[in-house]
Amino acid sequence: MTKSLEGKIALVTGAGSGIGQTTALTFAREGAKVVAADINLPDAEQTAHSIESAGGAAIAVKVDVSKSADVEAMVKAVVNEYGRLDCAFNNAGIGSRGQSTIDYSEEDFDRTISINLKGVWLCMKYEIPQMLKQGSGAIVNTASIMGVVGIDNSSAYVAAKHGVVGLTKTAALEFARKGIRVNAVCPGVIETPMVLRYTDEHPEVKEKYISRTPLGRLGNPQEVAETVVWLCSEDASFIHGHPMVVDGAWTAQ
Ligand SMILES: NC(=O)c1ccc[n+]([C@@H]2O[C@H](COP(=O)([O-])OP(=O)(O)OC[C@H]3O[C@@H](n4cnc5c(N)ncnc54)[C@H](O)[C@@H]3O)[C@@H](O)[C@H]2O)c1
């Protein structure tokens, strides 16, 4: 069977868990060599190991996406190892603490914006110059349905994810004529460790999420991964500047 990303080089942040981990494995399934980056190096190494065990090629890199020097070093590591960067999935992020707008601490607000919004900007800041040198590249940023609609008790998370959609559209306009496509993926509620950490403690919240999702279930990471890998492929060649929801129709309501 033809692989959609044969010989491409794919970078995934947050590759140690959840959506990033599954997407890293899916990039490899489609023939890409993968750089699995995460703040948690052992988890990123585990992802790289799984790829190699399945016959693929991967390395692991430690990165805190909120730190400029780390992100610059991450992109250098990709180019040092593989010589180029074709697909970048800027996905690392943290969840919301579930506090109302007036109860959010400044520290929590700053941390969420720093990782979920500034982290995506920093990744593009260092990835795009490499893609410009090549004259090609595809970027997918992880936003959320919370980048399209609001939800109560998550103001910093919602603000960050709306910001990711804004960054995506802006970069798409800036680099449209340079061979670089930039899109965002906006997952609904997906069963990953980020969500399970919360719903295991609050089962009633899981029921609330399910009842709010018209398809009547939560999503799984593979459903997001397939979308991301497709957005990076030539099959999505005219899709640019688009925040694509993968949400069981949450935002159709
Ligand atoms: N799970 C969902 O329902 C859902 C829905 C919409 C959007 N998202 C977004 O998807 C992305 C992935 O979430 P997930 O559900 O897979 O979560 P997860 O917690 O399973 O994975 C997140 C990964 O990001 C890494 N990470 C956290 N901070 C980092 C940093 N500063 N630098 C580098 N790596 C860091 C973590 O170590 C972890 O491996 C996040 O941006 C999240 O906001 C998730």
Portion in beta strands: 15-25%
| Estimated helix fraction | 40-55%
Give the distinct bound molecules: nicotinamide-adenine-dinucleotide
CATH superfamily: NAD(P)-binding Rossmann-like Domain
Number of alpha- plus pi-helical segments? 8
Second-tier CATH architecture? 3-Layer(aba) Sandwich
Structural class: alpha/beta
Highest-level CATH class: Alpha Beta
Overall number of domains: 1
The biggest sheet amounts to: 7 strands, parallel
Give the neighbour order of strands across the main sheet: 3-2-1-4-5-6-7
Which overall shape is indicated by the principal axes computed on the Cα atoms?
Answer: globular
- Helix-strand string: EHEHEHEHEHEHHHE
Question: Low-confidence segments, ≥5 residues, pLDDT <50?
Answer: none
Chain-averaged pLDDT? 97
Q: What is the CATH topology assignment? A: Rossmann fold
Secondary structure: number of strands: 7
Cα Rg: 17 Å
Q: Please give the alpha-carbon distance between the first and last residues.
A: 38 Å
Which keywords apply here?
alpha/beta; binds nicotinamide-adenine-dinucleotide; 8 helices; Rossmann fold; 7-stranded parallel β-sheet; 253 residues
Layout of helices and strands, plus pairs?
Layout: E1 9-13, H1 18-29, E2 33-38, H2 41-53, E3 58-62, H3 68-82, E4 87-90, H4 106-134, E5 137-142, H5 155-174, E6 180-187, H6 193-199, H7 203-212, H8 221-232, E7 243-246
Parallel strand pairs: 1-2, 1-4, 2-3, 4-5, 5-6, 6-7
Helix pairs in contact: 1-2, 1-8, 3-4, 4-5
The structure holds nicotinamide-adenine-dinucleotide (NAD).
